[in-house]
């Protein structure tokens, strides 16, 4: 992706970085918007969650002083440069209300005497939560979308507040989730 310098699209993959804040485990809030050199977001139809990475150029040793460990949260908003400040689902990627979870800090590289480059990898909170919980229950005679809503929205399960798009089913199904990870259960139902 290419960061836009002005309002209006000039190149393919151009974007405006409206917000990039890192919330550390120690309670610090770091605005990294000015340090960003590259943003990559990966989405796959066969993957249950999006992932990404951001590369930074750090000239003030922000990352060293903040003690980044890989369990931080990342608030990120990217928008298409359309000349307006209105951010909608159609023109922006907005993870400010539900921030990404940082899961990896790539080894930093010394660029020159005063600058260090580093990359952080992130994913959604649902994928992190999916690794920690299991679905163990039976669903008796209900539409598939109701089962999925219970798994995605349930307080003991994924607890997602994001928009959920689905196709309604006409039949009622009986299924058992025998101690499965939520995304594994959702994939089994989808098959």
Explain this structure.
The two termini are 34 Å apart. This protein has helices at 62-66, 125-130, 144-153, 182-190; strands at 2-3, 14-23, 29-31, 36-42, 51-58, 73-79, 92-105, 109-110, 116-123, 135-142, 173-180. It is built from four helices and eleven strands, in the order βββββαββββαβαβα. The strands form two sheets. Strands 1, 2, 3, 4, 5, 6, 7, 8 and 9 form a nine-stranded mixed beta sheet that branches. It has a two-stranded antiparallel sheet with strand order 10-11. By secondary structure, it is of the alpha+beta class.
Give the beta-strand count: 11
Structural class: alpha+beta
- Overall average pLDDT: 85
Q: Helical segment tally?
A: 4
Write the H/E string, N to C.
Answer: EEEEEHEEEEHEHEH
Low-confidence stretches: none
Tell me the β content.
35-45%
Features:
191 residues, alpha+beta, nine-stranded mixed beta sheet, 4 helices, elongated
In a few lines, what is going on in this structure?
This protein is α+β, with helices and mostly antiparallel strands. 16% of the residues lie in helices and 40% in strands.
Chart the SSEs and their pairings:
Elements: E1 2-3, E2 14-23, E3 29-31, E4 36-42, E5 51-58, H1 62-66, E6 73-79, E7 92-105, E8 109-110, E9 116-123, H2 125-130, E10 135-142, H3 144-153, E11 173-180, H4 182-190
């Amino acid at each position: 992706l290419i960061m836009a310098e002005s309002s209006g699209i000039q190149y393919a993959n151009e974007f405006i970085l409206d917000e990039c804040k890192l919330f550390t485990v120690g309670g610090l809030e770091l605005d990294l918007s000015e340090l960003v050199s590259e943003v990559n977001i990966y989405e796959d139809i066969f993957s249950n969650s999006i992932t990404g990475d951001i590369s930074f150029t750090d000239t003030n040793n922000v990352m060293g002083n903040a003690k980044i460990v890989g369990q931080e949260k990342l608030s990120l908003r990217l928008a298409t440069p359309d000349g307006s400040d209105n951010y909608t689902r159609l023109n922006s990627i907005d993870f400010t209300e539900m921030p990404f979870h940082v899961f990896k800090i790539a080894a930093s590289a010394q660029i020159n005497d005063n600058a260090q480059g580093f990359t952080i990898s992130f994913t959604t909170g649902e994928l992190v939560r999916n690794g920690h919980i299991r679905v163990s229950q039976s669903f008796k005679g209900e539409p598939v979308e109701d089962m999925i809503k219970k798994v995605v929205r349930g307080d003991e399960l994924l607890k997602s507040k994001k928009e959920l798009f689905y196709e309604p089913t006409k039949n009622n199904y009986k299924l058992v989730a025998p101690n499965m990870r939520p995304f594994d259960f959702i994939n089994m139902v989808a098959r």
